[in-house]
């Protein structure tokens, strides 16, 4: 059933052309810093083709076994994958005294990028992870409809193969509440018709698709390194 994915027990590390290693499906060790994050913040705004997967890379940088376990839930997503009810958790980790969120809100002045990375369990787990990424003009007067969107759904325990993704769909923030330190509470909804990719950066399979939709209530802020 492609809606919930197939557990293959993949534990090998994979490396894509950007020099970032993958991890196994239980969030075990593995990351080297690839070129996307060596870019400046302004360059990172312009580098948009797969910005949802960048969020996965960012947390993988810190994905040690201990990091994978010590998580605080900062929100939830309740939705469906091809009609199968599914819930995910947004998480926060404390690393070297600093907060690291799986929800990123970056305000560049001319646009606000929101990336919501959520997991099937309250720990860092690749299998079944969902990443929503969108750009908004502002969060000051929501409800806000995203100007650009992307979804990345990991049906198995790797981010480099057998994924569903698309840049076509809708994401709406119904309420955006500012918190301390540039953080936000975001409540909203999304709907995507995602195509299956045997290779994450390869061509889609036109015969395999997944309807991914739901609502979210999460907290997050700027990405910290």
How much of the sequence is in beta strands?
A: over 45%
Extended strand count: 12
Q: Tell me the structural class.
A: mainly beta
The helix content is under 10%
Distance between the termini: 38 Å
| Sequence of secondary-structure elements | HHHEEEEEEEEEEEE
Please give the largest β-sheet. Answer: 12 strands, antiparallel
Low confidence ranges: 1-49, 61-66
Task: Give me a quick take on this structure.
The protein is built from three helices and twelve strands. With 225 residues, the protein is mainly β.
Task: Please name the defining characteristics of this protein.
mainly beta, 3 helices, globular, disordered N terminus
3D structure, described in words:
By secondary structure, this protein is mostly beta strands. Helices cover 9% and strands 46% of the residues. Strands 1, 2, 3, 4, 5, 6, 7, 8, 9, 10, 11 and 12 form a twelve-stranded antiparallel β-sheet that branches. A hairpin with a 6-residue loop joins strand 8 (148-154) and strand 9 (161-166). The protein starts with 40 loop residues before the first helix and ends in a 5-residue tail after the last strand. The relative contact order is 0.19. The model is unreliable at 1-49 and 61-66 (pLDDT under 50).
